[in-house]
Specification:
The complex is a heterodimer.
Chain A (H helix, E strand, L loop, with lengths): L1 H17 L2 E9 L9 E4 L5 E3 L5 E6 L3 E8 L6 E7 L4 E2 L2 E3 L15 E5 L9 H6 L7 H5 L5 E2 L8 E2 L7 E5 L2 E2 L22 E7 L13 E7 L7 E7 L2 E9 L3 E11 L1 H6 L5 E19 L3 E19 L7 E20 L4 E18 L2 E19 L4 E20 L4 E21 L4 E12 L4 E13 L4 E12 L3 H4 L8 E14 L2 E18 L10 E18 L6 E15 L15 E11 L4 E10 L3 E2 L10 E2 L3 E14 L2 E10 L9 E4 L11 E4 L6 E10 L1
Parallel strand pairs in A: 1-7, 1-8, 12-15
Antiparallel strand pairs in A: 1-4, 2-3, 2-5, 5-6, 9-14, 10-11, 12-13, 14-15, 16-17, 16-41, 17-18, 18-19, 19-20, 20-21, 21-22, 22-23, 23-24, 24-25, 25-26, 26-27, 27-28, 28-29, 29-30, 30-31, 31-32, 32-33, 33-34, 34-37, 35-36, 37-38, 38-41, 39-40
Chain B lengths: L1 H17 L5 H14 L3 H17 L5 H14 L5 H21 L4 H13 L5 H22 L4 H12 L9 H17 L12 H11 L1
Helix pairs in contact in B: 2-3, 3-4, 4-5, 4-6, 5-6, 6-7, 6-8, 7-8, 8-9, 9-10
The chains are: A mainly beta, B mainly alpha.
Chain lengths: ~725, ~210
């Protein structure tokens, strides 16, 4: 008996001893680099281990027979393989595959600058816009510090790569903003309507943008508003040009913000002498409402409404009777409502839908004449995003934009009322696929089509971009696309003889991103066709307008940003070279337009001094000379201004007033007082000796001072 | 004789059969002891893997997921790469969500969630400070409703306040009473078993000294 038990015990113990199977090997990736710290284990058991600093692993398991070995490590796809554990030691060397959803995989960047809190590799955070010197918290001012833009200080709009201001369109939550800039006096820069703090994401495209957007020949500025507000808060702002108040209330699923601002430049203009004869200094007010509501687990409804009103008047040179002056009076009000609903329908489908309405009423008094312009617009849009799998997703959608334009010009001398109006419905459809061919190659291909009822024409615009990852930190990207745009309101109101204007983009870029440093160089060629031309300066005659204009723009943009080399200092340098000519509008020959400057250089620096909790900002910008039309010169547009320089400083001081977070912001533009001349206006008639008199276009004051105090009360 | 034989056979059989699945208590204790000594990124990664293996088997237990996420958050304080920090915290978020699905009322998981949110601020104080400290404090408030005696709630609250700059209403002076309150709660606290969450007492003492 004892012998029997002994034998039985030995057999059983040897069985359990043999049931310890040993598995070992190495873990590496596709580039033969070893992976340390990977988790190697037998599925459905505790048995396993971590790979060591040499990528080696070894462990014992009491499991036998057919088992599944599993290996996981962040950044790689989990590896699983069936193995047979039969009491022999097993050696298994495993290669892990990159996880295609990882943040450092390739994505299409040709012609794109993205500013977002979330995505890696974005160029700007929304807060960057507010803290950049010389932008005065104006989004367009901040975009002007990026490559691809030409500084046109007397207009204030965004001029991108040889394109006029109207060739850049702004989209908020996917919907087109009909009038993103405020109305302004001649030669004075306008400002964007929206505060940069409204937005969590900004995508500035200098060309080649997605088929989801259209109606912009040069560039799209795509802004996405914030989601649900994070906290109840009262904000007070006191500035050298006015003040404002905002209140945000929120609960679990809802947030509501109401704000109002009043501005009046009289106190400032009385203090700092302006080279302009103001009769009524600019003043105005605006009110905003932002409502957010979570619907279900995945849905969010956003409603934004704003009302702006302003007025001013100046005494301005009358070029028909130079140098006498006449009065220009400006009064405008603008209502904008947009409502967006986004939701994740299920695992594969995401729906974005929205509607927006805007009404702009502008009254301009020109001497005794009076021009009244009313523009109403309505847009409805939806986009569906379908994720086929990890590598392919498809986006498609439709939108409809209705626009009603009415203008009445009252001519005092003849007591005539000249009206011009048009109505347009533009419907569009687009489809676009984003494909990850591999972790190194990604592409986006799409097509967009639009039909305009006023033009009675249709367009079809293909778009294509590709990106290839040349190394862990660098990639090359190329883009091609056709971009159509309905002619401007001022041309459509007179003519129903027109077709879409068109630009074709070819873009190639190289980008290197490592350790908070970015280097990017991009080259492009843009061909303009079907630009509006008018042979006479006789408006109201439809046949005087046609689409025989054309042009081109080509150049190189370079960008370098460094947030790492120096402690507490970040800086960026952006340089653009452009060569562009056009023959459109009333041009008599092909010439470089007056908003193009061949060389633009911007340097932005921000330095944080902890001991005084201050962020010091500085900017230097160089703009080479711009052409201007000189009637004294027989060669059309052959004169050029001198180059323009600007050095600006800003100081943001972070503090608290009775426990409430406070920022004191002080900025001075053109600190050194460079006498920049942006161009010239000329009298329409020559004087006694046959010369046309000139009038230099300059800023009304060399320097602009700004002080603001912003308090958040919780 | 038969009885002895049967008992013996049963003993061996149980050794053979159940010896294959080591006790949950045993593996948790082993992993927990390992975690106490893990202070480098590499050793913490090994702790992550240990708890991950346990979590893969024990689908009804929140604790392995909790410690796996806890180790991940710890790693973010031991490395410099900001993108890696976000990557690890994304993974921690996933695990914390899974743990909450198992027991949504567990205050320890909510405190860990609060800590993972504060950890995000490491990447960029300027842009993330306000948002994430707000969210973190929100989770601590929820944890307080679940179990107001959990000392780690008050400790984490103290941490959030301590690392908020004075000009934003934070700082050492404001944090001190929170750490003192945490100290009282630590004194009254007893852990459920040898590996349930009990951390924080020593570092809380260190923080009180820092505030002096």
């Amino acid at each position: 008996m004892k012998l029997f038990i002994l034998i039985l015990t030995t057999i059983i113990i040897s069985l359990t001893a043999f049931a310890q199977n040993k598995i070992s090997g190495t873990i590496s990736d596709k580039n033969k680099e070893i992976i340390a710290g990977a988790n190697v284990f037998i599925k459905n058991s505790y048995d396993g281990t971590s790979s060591n600093e040499k990528g080696e692993y070894a462990f014992e398991t009491s499991k036998t027979g057919k088992q599944i070995i599993s290996v996981s490590f962040i950044g790689y796809k989990t590896f699983e393989q069936e193995i047979n554990l039969n009491s022999k030691a097993t050696t298994l060397n495993i290669v892990l595959e990159d996880d295609a959803n990882q943040m450092n995989t390739v994505n299409v960047t040709a012609g794109t600058f993205e500013a977002s809190d979330k995505k890696k590799g974005t160029f700007l955070k929304p807060l960057d816009i507010v803290t950049t010197a010389n932008t005065l918290a104006d989004i367009y001012g901040a975009m002007n510090a990026l490559p691809g833009t030409m500084k046109v200080a007397d207009k204030g709009e965004l001029f991108v790569r040889g394109g006029e201001g109207y060739e850049t369109k702004t989209f908020v939550d996917g919907l087109l903003v009909q009038k993103p800039y405020s109305s302004t006096m001649p030669d004075l820069p306008s400002r964007g309507r929206f505060s940069p703090m409204l937005f969590s994401g900004t995508l500035f495209s200098t060309g080649g943008y997605s088929a989801e957007y259209g109606q912009a020949m040069s560039s799209a500025l795509i802004l996405n508003t914030q989601g649900l507000a994070e906290e109840n808060m009262t904000s007070v702002s006191l500035m050298s040009l006015g003040g404002g108040l905002a209140q945000t209330v929120k609960n679990e699923n809802t947030s509501l913000s109401l704000s109002g601002d009043y501005y009046n430049l009289a106190p400032y203009y009385n203090l700092v002498k302006q080279d302009l004869q103001w009769l009524k200094m600019p003043q105005g007010l605006d009110g905003n409402l932002i409502f957010r509501q979570k619907i279900g687990t995945n849905g969010l409804l956003k409603v934004m409404g704003s009302y702006t009103q302003g007025s001013s008047s100046i005494s301005y040179p009358n070029f028909d009777n130079f140098p006498t002056m006449y009065n220009i009076a400006l009064a405008d009000n603008h209502t904008y409502i947009n409502s967006v609903y986004n939701t994740q329908l299920n695992d594969k489908w995401i729906l974005s839908s929205g509607m927006c309405y805007s009404y702009d009423h502008e009254q301009i008094g020109l001497g005794l004449d009076n021009v009244r312009t009313d523009v109403k617009s309505f847009e409805a849009k939806y986009t569906l995003n379908y994720t086929l799998n990890n590598n392919i997703s498809i986006k498609f959608g439709n939108n409809l934009v209705y626009k009603n334009y009415f203008q009445n010009y009252f001519v005092d001398s003849t007591k005539q009322n000249l009206t011009a109006k048009f109505e347009d419905n533009t419907g569009s459809a687009f489809v676009e696929a984003e494909i990850k061919f591999s972790t190194k190659l990604a592409g986006r291909i799409g097509v967009r089509s639009e039909y305009s009822s006023d033009l009675k024409k249709m367009n079809v615009a293909p778009r294509l971009s590709l990106a290839y990852k040349t190394s862990e930190f660098s990639q090359v990207s190329l883009g091609y696309g056709q971009f159509y745009e309905t002619p401007q309101d001022d041309e459509l109101k007179f003519s129903n003889n027109l077709d879409f204007e068109k630009a074709t983009h070819y873009i190639l870029n190289y980008q290197f991103t490592k350790d908070s440093r970015i280097f990017r160089v991009e080259t492009y060629y843009k061909k303009y066709d079907d630009l509006v031309k008018y042979t006479d300066v006789t408006p109201y005659i439809s046949e005087a307008y046609n689409n025989s204009g054309f042009g081109y723009a080509k150049g190189v943009d370079v960008f370098w940003r460094d947030q790492k080399t120096f402690d507490n200092l970040e800086y960026w340098i952006s340089y653009s070279y452009i060569d562009s000519k056009r023959n459109n509008k009333d041009y008599v020959t092909t010439a470089t337009p007056d908003f193009v400057s061949n060389n633009n250089l911007t340097f932005i620096g921000k330095y944080y001094i902890k001991s005084i909790t201050s962020l010091i900002g500085t900017s230097y910008s160089f703009t080479s000379g711009r052409t201007y039309y000189n009637p004294n010169n027989p060669n059309f547009m052959s004169d050029k201004t001198a180059s323009m320089n600007d050095i600006s400083l800003s100081w943001s001081y972070l503090t608290h007033i009775k426990d409430n977070y406070t920022i004191l912001f002080v900025s001075v533009s053109n600190v050194l007082g460079f006498d920049n001349i942006y161009g010239y206006h000329y009298a329409t008639k020559p004087d006694a000796d046959g010369t046309y008199e000139s009038f230099a276009i300059k800023s009304p004051a060399k320097r602009f001072f700004f002080i603001g105090l912003f308090i958040s009360i919780k | 004789m038969k009885k002895v034989f049967l008992t013996y056979v049963l003993g061996i059989v149980s050794l053979v059969c159940f010896g294959q699945n080591a006790d949950y208590d045993v593996v948790m204790n082993e992993a927990f002891q390992f975690l106490q000594k893990a202070h480098t990124a590499d050793s913490l990664q090994m702790a992550v893997n240990k708890f991950d293996r346990i979590a893969n088997v024990e689908k009804t237990k929140w604790l392995p997921l909790y410690y796996e996420a806890y180790s991940l958050v710890n790693i973010t304080y031991a490395i410099k790469d900001n993108d890696k920090k976000d990557q690890l915290l994304d993974k921690a978020d996933e695990l914390i969500s899974k743990a909450l699905k198992i027991d949504e009322k567990e205050s320890e998981i909510l405190v860990l969630k609060a800590w993972a949110l504060s950890a995000r601020i490491q990447v960029s104080f300027m842009t993330r400070g306000g948002k994430y400290s707000q969210l973190s404090n929100g989770e601590l408030a929820k944890a307080k409703q679940m179990n107001p005696e959990n000392p780690r709630i008050y400790f984490m609250n103290g941490q959030n306040v301590f690392y908020t700059p004075e000009f934003l209403g934070g700082g050492a002076k404001k944090a001190k009473p929170l750490f003192e309150l945490a100290k009282q709660k630590f004194e009254k606290f007893t852990a459920t078993n040898s590996y349930s969450p009990s951390w924080g007492k020593e570092i809380n003492e260190k923080m009180i000294n820092k505030c002096n």
